[in-house]
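Final report, Chapter 2: Outcomes

The project's central promise was a pipeline that accepts a single protein chain and returns its three-dimensional structure in a standardized token representation, suitable for archiving and comparison. That pipeline is now operational. To close this chapter, we reproduce one record exactly as it appears in the project archive, with the input sequence first and the structure output second.
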Amino acid sequence: MRKLKAKIMDAVGLERTLTRLSHEIIEKNKGAGNLVIVGIKTRGAIIAQRITKRIEEIEQTKLNIGLLDITLYRDDLLGKLEQPEFKGTDIIFSIAGKDVILVDDVLFTGRTIRAALDELIDLGRPNTIQLAVLIDRGHRQLPVKADFVGKNVPTSIDESIRVHLKETDGHDEVLLMHPETQA
């Protein structure tokens, strides 16, 4: 059982953070002309859709957006008893020569991102792959660093981050959860 330790972002803070990330992506890439956005299912895909909408409004252009399901690329499937639920990758455009903005909600060990990179490379050879995350909580097991970070949140290894989005949870917020201690 986990208990709330802190509210990291409310709905207004989350929207402000996504707007800032969108501007940073545009600035680093000198516009949106060569960008494609790819979100890691589930919450990374929702965040990617929101960032795409903002960039399209700012740049007055239409972007390709794709959704990545890394289930078959995970390195922790062996030894699991349950059958993984495959939700399907949805990228119907070429990423070859493009600047791919890979989006996820929380960056932790780096293993999800490694799986996503493996899958993206199987789909084509992009010009660059840049990582955008809402929260970076540290504790990397692989040499992965985000290019765009909404907020760095130092955590202990036993704490967790919960991202609630209105599309899946009915409201927007980011919470830091702490395990309940047994007395």
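Archive annotation: The chain is about 30% helix and 30% strand.
This record, like all others produced under the grant, will remain available to the consortium after the project formally closes.
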